[in-house]
Amino acid sequence: MQLQPSQPIQKTSLTHVFSTRTLVKMGVLVAVLIVSAQLSFPVSFTPVPITFQTLAIMFICAVLKPLPATLTVLSYISMGAMGVPVFSGWQNGWVAFTQHTAGFIVGFVPITIFMSICVQAIEKRYSKMAAGGVCRYNITPKRCVTKKYLLLTLVIIGFTIILYAFGAIWLYIFIRYIAATNVNLTFGATLMTAAVPFLLGDSIMAAAFLMCYERIVGLGER
To answer: What domains can you pick out in the chain, each with its CATH number?
Structure first.
């Protein structure tokens, strides 16, 4: 019986998984996320400040594919967990994960996964159609664009609901059990506190994102 020579073990690195261009984009977008966290505005009737992080995450989801987009956000969160002051107000460390804003930080991961997957699917289906390709059921390219932006709007609504849900659930737990306050706050009231103050700002950021969407997605490699 003749033994086959053993194959050399190939080492895997990030450069084998992602192109150098993608890695550079991931690094730049982590920096964008850090800067957007510091552009915060406190609101008197809620303990959670308004930041530009949701706009930054939308940008990340439009530029990168799902895996690098998710790793970019996870890198940002990991940096904060390891002590780098990257969160809103230059917070850092595990202390930030026991504060009232922790639910939003954790929620960045599922909203990134959700939106990046949806954007990739929408781009694959509708971009070629809008560029003059064959549309299903004899739909004109103009209607393809309309359907594309309608779907993007629905994705942003889902993105916002998921983020608010994570933020509200954690804020309820924090006020009720961690902060040990005497405030008898229902979950519905907590949801109002965690969501309503941000609806106007998030709507403006979503509108700005949609207006610049084609230019933003053009920076990607889809």
So the answer is: 19-217 (1.10.1760.20)
